[in-house]
Amino acid sequence: MNPYPGKPLSFIIVGSGWRAMFYVRIAKRYPELFHLNFLLCRTGEKAGRIRLEAGIPTTTSVSDCEASHPDFVVVAVSYDSNYSVAKEWLRKGYAVLAETPAASGEEALEDLWALHQKGAKLQIAEQYFRYPLIASGLRAVEQGRLGEPYAVELSLAHDYHGISLIRRMLNCGFGRKAKCQSPLPTVKLWGRQYRFKVTETDSRFGPITDGRVGESERTRISLEFENGKVAFYDFSGTQYHSFLRSRHINVQGQRGEWNDTILRCLDDSGKPVEEQIKPCFDPAYEVLHTEELLKWGQIWHPEVHMENWQDEYAIATLMVDMGELLQSGSGGYPLAEALEDAYLTLLFRQAVAHPGQVITSGPHSWQKGDGR
After folding, report:
1. pLDDT of residue 291
2. 34-40 and 9-14: which strand pairing?
3. Are residues 154 and 22 in the same domain?
4. Staple 101 to which of 33, 190, 224, 342, CB 3.0 to 4.6 Å?
5. What pLDDT score does 50 carry?
């Protein structure tokens, strides 16, 4: 939590795109927890426009940002720039919360681990496992209500987010609740990408009603873990913003199944039970449980639909964790997990580039420890 009780964690944002604005809204929503010192833009024109539109302090000067003495730095830049910008601020001695994934190459991932081993404080902003609806299902898995999970079918989130969820759903990670031994088990995967036409109905900026038709990629990848667990990843980008395409979760174990918002399992007497999964707010972040969120949590949602507030709530919990990272060097999403998720994402792309070819994961330095 906040290492300076009674004082909001201060931060700057490097980047000015769509993702950066999530952090802006969070700072406005929870002023008692976070204070935005500056949003750093590349051009004066953009800095001026965002200052007027969002009502926040903006600058094009790194010196201004450093002079404001932020507790941490949010890096929300392009995929190709993420690693280099995060590294720049880490080398300056700042704690960094960087957008996903950590880097786009194996050398860069190893470099980040080496910096971490030398004391650099980096957390990756992977938010999906903190979505209240997903967190509820994951809690059921962790409690053993399905028995040991052995199979996942996931059509919910792309690339990095997808593999991160798959590993958690299968207990294939570090930590006391994970059943894998260190080093992490190798993974074999193969897949293929397809292209289909679909009528566009929604977007980040609102509904589309003119009947336009676009072409959408659909990626299917099979994963076999060394411990015998399996996963089937299936996703198309149009699923994020469409009134025609849904998203799905299915996790199976010997004693039960998590299917979208339904949990089917056996009770202590061996009797089959069926429960509705409702959003779960982690007690560790009770300070974020606004009346609006709690009210939403009482509403039954028949589909797994990712509302904006779920994204913002999840990211806010990671921002809260930056206080713990500053204090102890350990955040809520261990860097080793983030690097493994990023590495397997690279293998996803290899599988797509070589349809049907079996790709096998290899050893890396972050896999050998306890995940911290």
Report:
1. 65
2. parallel
3. no
4. 342
5. 96
Residue range of the domain that includes 285:
130-328
Count how many residues are written for the chain.
Answer: 372
pLDDT per 10-residue tile (average), the chain, 372 residues? 68 95 93 96 95 96 97 95 96 97 95 96 95 92 96 96 96 61 79 95 88 94 96 94 92 97 94 90 78 56 54 92 91 92 96 96 84 59
Residue 357's alpha-carbon distances to 71, 184, 193, 217, 351, in angstroms, are 46, 22, 13, 19, 7
Tokens 């679909």 belong to 198
What three-state secondary structure class fits 274? strand
User: Considering all CA atoms of the chain, what is the largest pairwise distance in Å, rounded to the nearest integer?
Assistant: 66
**What pLDDT, on the 0 to 100 scale, is given for residue 301?**
44
Same domain, 52 and 140: no
Give one word for 41, left, alpha or beta, with left for phi > 0 and alpha for psi -120 to 50.
beta
Q: Phi and psi of 221, rounded to 5°?
A: -135, 135
| Alpha carbon distance 110, 103 (integer Å) | 10
Report if residue 266 sits inside a domain. yes
Per-residue confidence (pLDDT) for residue 280, from 0 to 100: 80
Distances (CA, A) of 94 to 55, 87, 298, 323, 325: 26, 10, 40, 13, 11
- Per the structure, the count of domains in the chain is 2
Q: What is the pTM of this model?
A: 0.91
Report the distance separating Cα 191 and Cα 233, nearest Å. Answer: 9
Backbone angles phi, psi at 312, to 5 degrees: -70, -40
Residue 53 lies in a domain: yes
One domain, residues 145 and 83: no
User: Is residue 208 a contact partner of residue 241, using CB atoms and an 8 Å limit?
Assistant: no
Q: Is residue 298 part of a domain?
A: yes
Give the burial string for 328-346 (b: 16+ CB within 10 Å, else e): eeebbbbbbbbbbbbbbbb
Q: Cα–Cα distance between 190 and 296 in angstroms, integer?
A: 39
